[in-house]
Amino acid sequence: MPDASILSSAQTAPPNTAPFSIEGKTAIVTGAGSGINLSFATLLLSRNCSVLFADLSLRPEAQALVSSYSTPTQGKPRAVFQETDTARKEFGGIDIVCPGAGVFDPHWSNFWHPPGSTESRDDPEGGRYASIDINILHPIRTTQLAISSFLNPPAGQDKVSPTNPKRVIIISNVAGQVANPITPLYVAGKHAMNGFIRSLTHLDSSLGIRVNGVAPGIIKTPLWTEHPEKLKLFDDGKDEWASPEEVAEAMVRLLEKGQLEGRTILEVGAGVTRRVEMLGDPGPQGRGVRISGATEEFEGVLGRLRQEGWGKSGK
User: Fold this and answer.
1) Secondary structure class of 260 (helix, strand, coil)
2) SS3 48
3) Sorting pLDDT into bands at 50, 70 and 90, what band is 177?
4) Which of 101, 161, 199, 263 sits a CA distance of 20 to 30 A from 207?
5) Alpha-carbon span 196 to 199, nearest angstrom
6) How is residue 101 annotated by DSSP?
7) Pairing label, strands 50-54, 166-171
8) What are phi and psi of 91, to 5 degrees?
9) Measured in Å, how far apart are the chain's first and last C-alpha atoms?
């Protein structure tokens, strides 16, 4: 077990309150082609922060945004779309990294659809889930690369320090505070992200690298609206959407507010944003953080498990 003093200091590490403004900065946002990440990138651009959109593809609204900011103009932010990391070449350096790409319990990489089953694309011989790679390994490795970039800047640029701070913002979810038998891989991934964010607390005060996160509730994005199997969990009479713009606003607060020290996670619901405590937190609060159809959906999971041969190849 870790020493108790280490655990205690992880909860009380002082914030680095050196001023940080997104104005004039450069950012990489993965998954910026749609949803929360697109709203975040839009807000950054509106605040004169250049953005590299790193994604597999862009939705039409994202493509239109990139096109409108693509021409280099003195004193104006730029937007560039690349499938790979080319921020140094395009902008000369990086100030903000958001490893925002994620998936919400897809049928093709799902605990209840084991590798080898007809729905799964995971290799039964590979010992991996694609959803875990995307939701856990991607943000962890991207954060490593961001820290390396901050510590080893291009020639002529200052290295990160408490007086020259840099930022990493990670997208968790309210699933990281609860349990859900329908989406165990997604829940595991978001619990992992919460622990990861909080474990990097001391980078803020020691090196000027702040790693924070947002925990959105039920956000109206294509992850929901373009997947009927997920939309059936949402009851229009009982449940409420939060907006991706609300999440983006919370993300900018985490970048700029001095007292939101490294390890801070802000939960975002419908009209409600609050800090998620590491210990003794009451769990998701307010509107837009819960769905009503979970019980009925889990009955379907149990029905599948009761079928003969569940988990065997082709089943």
Assistant:
1) coil
2) coil
3) very high
4) 101
5) 5
6) -
7) unpaired
8) -115, -15
9) 41
